[in-house]
Design a protein that fits this description.
heterodimer; A: alpha+beta; Methylamine Dehydrogenase, Chain H; four-stranded antiparallel beta sheet; 3 helices; 12 strands; elongated; B: mainly beta; six-stranded antiparallel beta sheet; 17 strands
């Protein structure tokens, strides 16, 4: 009888024993894990805004994790935002370059490429951004602020896809570009 | 580094207006056909400026402010009508849908005016004292106090490029496009269905030409832009100017779907409702 009780206690202790995760991790060594979204299917939860591109017949749905793309042939894709996981305020196609610009409710701006399905630039705007529009056939976007100002920024590619939106002066590069476009 | 301030957009370069009391920018829309030259900037107080990027000065501005524009739309309350760059439609926060005529020739001086060409209340079919079943609300002064409307939150506009390719022709009433409205319902109404508002182009032009009197509550006092002007008028088979779409919950956004190769021909409306519901409505009866 005494032995059975002792055995029961030992089994219970073994079952309730908490594994030492740190020691377990050390014994397994460093693992190279790169979690990422590969594909997404199904409904569009937390969708807040729409945009439609009539030439390629693409519907863009602004969701909190990025932009959900729904094509006319039934293909779907999620262009994920790397950092701005918050409700989308607007999504817009940039004509001529196959890009989408997304503005979040917390002034996060993402420029997403349709072809590579990657985020080209992602920036938390320094002021309260109220609207954003991409200029046709150009790397420039114009950002409207709650202060009444309109500013220019350009997509600046970074290493490993970590690009940013760099504010640009009205003079110089921007004015040269639009002058070429106007000719 | 600041590009265009509110004061500069209205030609007040030496103004003492600071950014703290300037109205917020609610929309930036490059002018169709002149995307690299002119951008239309709309502000929260309802004022607008067509900014010349090359000359760095306003090419045209609004002279009067009807009312404000919903600030949280992310630019969705202002849309160019078609590819002509001559007309823009604006959703105001008093539920009013207004088209403005934009000049296309810009002399060095003076700054030209962006003028009102027509206006209507898309939510008017539910308001007023003597609404009719076909959606024609009699919004006249004899009806007593006018109903108040919620702000129009977003719009999507489609029109033929030069107003010469009518989608539909029925006895001279040509539909050149449609506007899809989100919001603008009567205050207190339980539902906020999206509404498709077809419009036509008045060939005669001139002041308030082609406006449907049953939809107009405020006289258009500003002179109209030269040439033909868009106007909202009953064009459907039941003479109903507004087409309220089925309601499946609070509406967040909507876009108009056009026929492939014919951007002026509206075939469907895609409406996003709360909970991630997306419904596509057939609008081919409009065309």
């Amino acid at each position: 009888m005494f032995k059975l009780t002792k055995l029961t206690k030992a089994v219970t202790e073994a079952l309730n024993a908490v594994p030492n995760v740190d020691e377990l991790a050390k014994s397994m060594g460093a693992m190279e894990v790169d979690p990422r979204v590969v594909s997404e299917h199904g409904g569009v939860h937390s969708a807040t805004c729409l945009a439609y591109e009539p030439t390629q017949r693409i519907l863009a749905v602004g969701v909190d994790t990025g932009v959900k793309i729904i094509c006319a042939d039934g293909a779907e894709a999620l262009l994920a935002t790397p950092t701005h996981v918050e409700p989308a305020r607007s999504v817009e196609f940039i004509a001529g370059v196959g890009r989408i610009v997304r503005l979040s409710s917390e002034s996060g701006i993402d420029v997403l490429d349709l072809h590579s399905q990657r985020c080209l630039a992602s920036t938390r705007w320094m002021k309260d951004a109220t609207c954003v529009v991409g200029l046709r056939d150009s790397p420039f976007v114009m950002v409207g602020e709650s202060t009444g100002c309109v500013r220019v920024a350009a997509v600046q590619h970074g290493p490993d896809g970590a690009g940013t939106l760099a504010p640009r002066s009205y003079k110089g590069e921007f004015i040269c570009f639009i002058s070429r476009m106007g000719n | 580094m600041c590009t265009v301030t509110h004061a500069a957009a209205f030609g007040r370069i030496d103004s003492s207006e600071s950014t703290s009391n300037a109205p917020a920018v609610v929309a930036i829309k490059p002018q169709p056909g002149a995307e690299s030259t002119n951008i239309l900037i709309a502000y929260e107080d309802g004022s607008m400026s067509l900014w010349d990027l090359h000359a760095r000065r306003p090419a045209a501005t609004t002279r009067v402010k009807l009312c404000g524009i919903f600030a949280e739309s992310g630019g969705g309350c202002v849309q160019w009508l078609g590819a002509s760059g001559r007309s823009v439609v604006v959703a105001h926060d008093d539920g009013r849908l207004v088209t403005y005529g934009v000049p296309t020739v810009y002399p060095k001086a003076p700054v030209l005016a962006i003028v009102v060409t027509s206006q209507c209340f898309p939510g008017g079919s539910e308001g007023g004292g003597n609404c009719t079943m076909d959606g024609n609300a009699e919004l006249t002064e004899e009806d007593g106090p006018a109903p108040a409307f919620e702000p129009l939150r977003r719009i999507c506009a489609v029109a033929s490029g030069r107003f010469v390719s009518p989608v539909r022709s029925d006895g001279g009433a040509s539909v050149q496009g449609a506007v899809l409205c989100v919001g603008g319902e009567v205050v207190g109404a339980g539902m906020d269905p999206a509404r498709a508002v077809p419009f036509k182009v008045s060939e005669s032009g001139g002041e308030s030409a082609g406006l449907n009197p049953s939809l107009v509550r405020t006289a258009v006092s500003a002179p109209s832009a030269p040439g033909s002007a868009p106007s909202f008028a009953p064009v459907g088979p039941d003479a109903s100017p507004m087409h309220s779409l089925p309601w499946f919950g609070p509406v967040l956004d909507g876009v108009l779907i056009t026929r492939v190769g014919r951007p002026e021909c509206v075939t469907a409306a895609c409406v996003l409702s709360e909970g991630g519901q997306i419904h596509v409505h057939d609008l081919r009866s409009l065309g």
